[in-house]
Amino acid sequence: MKFTKPLVAVLLLLAAASVLAAPANRPCREDIQKLCPDAAGERGAIRACIQENFDQLSEQCQVAVNKRREERRSAGGGQQTPPENAGPRADP
Length: 92
Description:
Blueprint: H1 4-21, H2 29-35, H3 43-52, H4 59-76
Helix pairs in contact: 1-3, 1-4
């Protein structure tokens, strides 16, 4: 159980990276430009910024990050609880 929080944090970061990598629809683009100007072009810094500022992200971005996190969680088969700072969970 000690690894649950770090595992969920990693899943959130991977979900955020996937949302950012989507070429067609980028619901987090403006949020990242506004909240993470120093992280431009640095994927790890962008992931950290998204995690740190989750509550300040637009609803569209939060939904996209949560959706991707749920997809990854389902693919992994594990039922994990989101970290305290991950914001509201989007139910499928």
